[in-house]
Each structure stands twice: as structure tokens, then as C-alpha cells.
Specification:
Blueprint lengths: L2 E4 L6 H12 L2 E4 H10 L3 H12 L5 H11 L9 E4 L5 H13 L6 E6 L2 H9 L1 E4 L5 E3 L13 E2 L6 H15 L1 H8 L3 E5 L4 H12 L2
Parallel strand pairs: 1-3, 1-4, 2-3, 4-8
Antiparallel strand pairs: 5-6, 5-7
Helix pairs in contact: 1-9, 2-3, 4-5, 6-7
Bound molecules: BIS(adenosine)-5'-pentaphosphate.
The site of BIS(adenosine)-5'-pentaphosphate has 34 residues, from helix 1, helix 2, helix 3, helix 6 and strand 6.
């Protein structure tokens, strides 16, 4: 099963993807996670991507499409992938369709996790993430990860001004994908402004798990 998770920054894509992986064993590909690792490791990709990420702008399509072409060939993707944060532009969506059809794998659904912008600003400015296991939590978790005891940190792009720019970029460049996936009958919208477990129950029901 191949699923695109759509939604504004902070809608809960990473949170729901982690739960799908834990319970249903799908492969999770988050372009944001790949890019943050590249920045931390100071790879060529990381050096090119950093200034866009710091500003809350999109990394250029050609860099993202090249990294995804390589990632999608890896053996762990064969049983199905949750694409989290990709595609983000119509150019990326067309590229994903081409990649999947050349591998003879269908896209089963594009799930839109729908949350209002003002809810998102509050969520992202209080988000904290574990440096060790990647657990996504909030400032309420305190300085250590409730899952593994690792250090909880605040992402550099989660200050209010950058969050607001990310939301503008989402509206301009990524929101048009809603119509793109509606056009191919793949789109399912889920209300993401409910308890995490309630949203997850809806996600599972939609996907037939
Ligand atoms: P990326 O890492 O993809 O960030 P994003 O899309 O902005 O999404 P987030 O990770 O911020 O949010 P999320 O929806 O996963 O929410 P989460 O589950 O964490 O991208 C970062 C940057 O990389 C981009 O700005 C861009 O520069 C670049 N980039 C990445 N992909 C790219 C691409 N394809 N093309 C070009 N550039 C790209 O939840 C957020 C918070 O809310 C957490 O604290 C969580 O605990 C809480 N929460 C989650 N669900 C709920 C709920 N139901 N109720 C209450 N709280 C909740």
C-alpha cells in the first residue's frame, strides 16, 4: 500500500505516520527527516538545503526529486510506503506518479490531515522532538523523551515567524495538490483537530486496516 500524507506543517503527518509504522509496518519516508539528517551530517544535499529550510521555504524540486528517485529504489519500500512531506508541489506529484508507475506500484490514497492555521501555530511553537528516537511530542513532555530518555529539542524552523511563512508557502505551493489528488479520486480528507488516537482510528478505517 502506497499512501501520500498531505497537510499543512504541523497538521500531524509525522505523528500519524509513526503510528502507522508501529502498528502496520509500512515504510515511512519523510523528506523533512532526510533533509534534517543531511544538514546535520553536512552532506552536499544538506549544505544546499539548509538555507531554504531555515527560512521555511521549499527546497528546489530537482534536489527533492533526485533524492526520492534514489530512496524509492531501496528494498524496504517494496511492501508499501507512507510518503510524509512529499510531494509538496505539482511538479513533485507528477514525478511521484512517474516513479510509481515505472515500478508498477499504484498510489492507493492521498490522505489530507486537515487542521486550521491558528491551531497549527500553537502546536508547532510548542513542539519538541527526541534527538535519539525521533519521538514527536511537545514542551509538556519536559527535557527528556518519555519513550527513550533522549534529549528533547526544538526544531530551528518552529519559531513563530518561520511557522507563519511555512503556512504561507503551504497555501501557495502545496494546497493545490488537494485538487490534483481529487482529480484522480485518491483524496480523502480527515479532520486532524481531534485527539491523536481519534484521528488515527479514522486513518486506519480509511485505509481499511
Ligand atoms: P517537514 O519536516 O516535512 O515539515 P512540515 O511539513 O512543515 O511538517 P511538520 O514536520 O512540521 O509537521 P507534521 O505535520 O509532521 O506534524 P507533527 O506530527 O510533527 O519539512 C521541513 C522543511 O524541509 C520544509 O519547510 C522544507 O524546507 C523542507 N522540505 C521537506 N520536504 C520537502 C519537499 N518535499 N519539497 C521541498 N522542501 C521540502 O505534529 C506537530 C505537533 O503537533 C507535535 O508537537 C505533535 O505532538 C502535535 N500533534 C500532532 N497531532 C496532534 C493532534 N491530533 N492533536 C494535538 N496535537 C497534535
Amino acid at each position: 500500500m502506497n499512501i501520500v500524507l498531505l497537510g499543512a506543517p504541523g497538521a500531524g503527518k509525522g505523528t500519524q505516520a509513526a503510528k502507522l509504522v508501529e502498528k502496520n509496518g509500512l515504510c515511512h519516508i519523510s523528506t523533512g527527516d532526510i533533509l534534517r539528517a543531511a544538514v546535520a551530517n553536512q552532506t552536499e544535499l544538506g549544505q544546499k538545503a539548509k538555507r531554504y529550510m531555515d527560512a521555511g521555504e521549499l527546497v528546489p524540486d530537482e534536489l527533492i526529486i533526485d533524492l526520492m528517485k534514489e530512496r524509492i529504489q531501496q528494498p524496504d519500500t517494496q511492501a508499501g510506503v507512507i510518503f510524509d512531506g512529499f510531494p509538496r508541489t505539482t511538479t513533485q506529484a507528477v514525478a511521484l506518479d512517474t516513479m510509481l508507475s515505472s515500478l508498477d506500484r499504484p498510489l492507493d490514497a492521498a490522505l489530507l490531515i486537515d487542521v486550521a492555521p491558528e491551531v497549527i501555530v500553537g502546536r508547532l511553537t510548542s513542539r519538541r522532538t527526541c534527538r535519539v528516537c525521533g519521538y514527536i511530542g511537545s514542551v509538556a513532555d519536559g527535557p527528556t523523551c518519555p519513550k527513550c530518555g533522549g534529549e528533547m529539542y526544538q526544531r530551528g524552523d518552529d519559531d513563530e515567524a518561520t511557522v507563519r511563512n511555512r503556512l504561507d508557502v503551504y497555501q501557495k505551493s502545496t494546497a493545490p495538490l488537494v485538487d490534483y489528488y481529487k482529480g484522480s479520486d485518491k483524496l480523502v480528507a480527515i479532520d486532524g483537530d481531534r485527539d491523536v488516537e481519534v484521528v488515527f482510528a479514522d486513518v486506519e478505517k480509511t485505509l481499511g486496516f
